[in-house]
Amino acid sequence: MKKPPLIMTNVLVFIVTAAIAFIGVPIWAANFGIDWTEIGVAIFLFYFTGMSITAGYHRLWSHKTYDANVVVRVVLAIGGAMAVQNSILHWSSDHRIHHRHVDDNDKDPYSAKKGLWFAHIGWMLREYQAKRYSDYSNCKDLQKDKVVMWQHNHYLLIMLVANFGITGFLGWLNGDILGMILVAGVLRLVLVHHVTFFINSLAHFWGNQPYTDNNTARDNGILAFFTFGEGYHNYHHIFEYDYRNGIRWYQFDPTKWLIAGLSFVGLTKNLRRCPEERIEKARATMQLQRASEKASVLPNADELLQTIQTEYDLLIQRMSEYYAARKRLMRMKHSSLKRNLESLEVMYKYKELKQSLALQKEKWLQLQSLSLQMA
């Protein structure tokens, strides 16, 4: 089959910026040196532009996981243009199709099933889906956003001014315009490109699948460190409307921290979180599936499978009872009934169910460990 024609603009951007970053910058550094101001600005802009993609393009506009003040939206729109990954409208349209048709080689713009190289950068080098370049019918909501359309209609100008105007001005203040453009402009741009591209590529190949195996997305804490928290990709693909990717306090997700931090000063609001019950049940279902697969090859498979299913059913029942009691207790607290007898009974029942769920979880984990040892 004949390959689609190359998109020469993209090819040249990737080749020229990579050559400058990995050949030009070292030569410049060897002959003229790089100072700490240039390094500091490059690090700041690396996080600013990278998180403009993750917090802005991705979690704000593509998935609508929270609402943001107009000032935040404008800043993220400028930072996203500075990351040179097309406009918010185009990026979000591609990404929504990716989620709707993940791993479908005919519809997913960057399907991981077509290989690591294709998912990482290859999909942007050729006219694979030329008919879609002006079809934004899946983003009618974004077309009503004045910030999105301002950035889309003036993307090229904003991108050029942000990359060369901002870094050039900072370089002028520092006494070295070209050095600043090379380090904080081009080198930073290439690094942001590839760490954010990792989300489409490596995050579909490297890691584990604690929540679902219906697609190739993986959770990977190492990748999260390099992708501004986006490495918890298995979670994201099943709970895409959650503003968090790393749901545990210890999971590295600076994008989540930024969004939550801005909410404390009123600049973001309506932060969406997936109910904990759904998360717990998804994890337990995957554990059931894997335990059953291992038990099915053992001599006493039928008996063990029955035990595993029984314990799973009990776990799900305990979860449902516990979360129902917790919801009822929260409603009563909000309605100022927490001092009456009914509330005390609910509180007692809630604590009882919490303890029961903890014991059932412990029993379930012990059974998982036993099935692994027997396998």
Describe the structure.
This protein is mainly α and 375 residues long. The chain has two domains: 8-269, no CATH class; 276-374. Helix content is 66%, strand content 1%. The chain has helices at residues 8-32, 36-62, 70-82, 88-100, 116-120, 146-153, 155-174, 177-200, 221-226, 233-238, 254-264, 276-295, 301-334, 341-374, and strands at 67-68, 268-269. It has a two-stranded antiparallel ribbon. The two termini are 46 Å apart. The model has no long low-confidence stretch (mean pLDDT 91).
Keywords:
375 residues; mainly alpha; 2 domains; two-stranded antiparallel sheet; 14 helices; 66% helix
Please render the helix and strand layout as text.
Layout: H1 8-32, H2 36-62, E1 67-68, H3 70-82, H4 88-100, H5 116-120, H6 146-153, H7 155-174, H8 177-200, H9 221-226, H10 233-238, H11 254-264, E2 268-269, H12 276-295, H13 301-334, H14 341-374
Antiparallel strand pairs: 1-2
Order of helices and strands: HHEHHHHHHHHHEHHH
Look at the structure and give the mean pLDDT: 91
Uncertain spans? none
Q: So what's the oligomer here?
A: single chain
Which range does the strand content fall in? under 5%
**Main sheet: strand order:** 1-2
Supply Rg.
25 Å
The N- and C-terminal alpha carbons lie at a distance of: 46 Å
The overall number of domains is: 2
Q: How many helix segments?
A: 14
Globular, elongated, flat, extended or rod-shaped: what is the shape?
globular
The structural class is mainly alpha
Strands, total number: 2
Tell me about the biggest sheet?
2 strands, antiparallel
The helix fraction, in percent, is 55-70%
